[in-house]
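User: structure tokens for Envelope protein, please.
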Amino acid sequence: MMEKESIDIDIYEDFKIHHNNITSLVTNSINIRSTHTVEFSYNDIKEIQTQAFRIKSESQVKFAHNYMHVVRKEAFTEIKPWLSEEAASIIFLENTIIQAEPLSCLLNMNYLEHERTIKDNRFKVLCNCNITDHFRTLLGINENSTHIQNATFKTFLAKTLCQESEEVSSRFINILEYIDTDCTAMNLAVVLSASIAVFLLLLVIVVSIVCHMKVKKVQEQANYVGDDCSTHSFSTSFTSPPLSPCYTTPQDFTKQIVVPEMKTYHQTEVYFPFENAEPISVSVRNSCLNQDLLADYLPPQQNRASCPFN
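Assistant: Done. Predicted tokens:
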């Protein structure tokens, strides 16, 4: 464990801390002012506490190939460039982070966008379609974030790895690649399934409406035409026998009235047996049938109900 201000030096040449097993870096445990590159590489660090590094550099500060078990919030925010120095930069390259607290990946705002390099760092976080929200918390990204912070976040996502599967803990995949491969296909499948479901629902509704209209129409026709003449029937009634007395003018025609009649149509065949037949004597011109003679051959008068549609 490195105590507070365990390293407190001014450096005028490249400085490296590498291949160390460090239990904990407490707050302000490393204080360095350098005109050259400062590099931390191939270290196994159990814990990096808040503001563990206080570094000012005119050149490059580099973290590469380190294994960091726990990184507390704002662990790197006190690493700063000399304000007058344009060559200053900070690099995070191929580090493995097991557990990171919210705001643990924040960098000092004095580093400009092009002075920040973040590439191929592996986070032991299982990949999922909402993983970008997790990394937003690590970088403190919100609606009030600056352009530099948002640009850093985009770079972070584009070049950071997450754990691909729970079974194989050593297998990592690029975050954006995972989202494009798995989440986009999943979203497309969900949208496609929803579209098919909506289409089928609309189809069922349309078919139901059409069938209902068809059935209703058929029922109306059946009620009007077919099954019961007692409710939908008409009959022709005669006010006088079919053969009326003689007439001399057209006005003497017997009128026929069509009225609704609540009767069921029955068809009956009537047979008249004749023992002998004699011609009926009628005149051809200006005369009519002998009604008395004709009455002997006619059946009794009766009205017949009819259903005109049968």
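User: Anything notable?

Assistant: Confidence is low (pLDDT under 50) at residues 229-240, 243-249.
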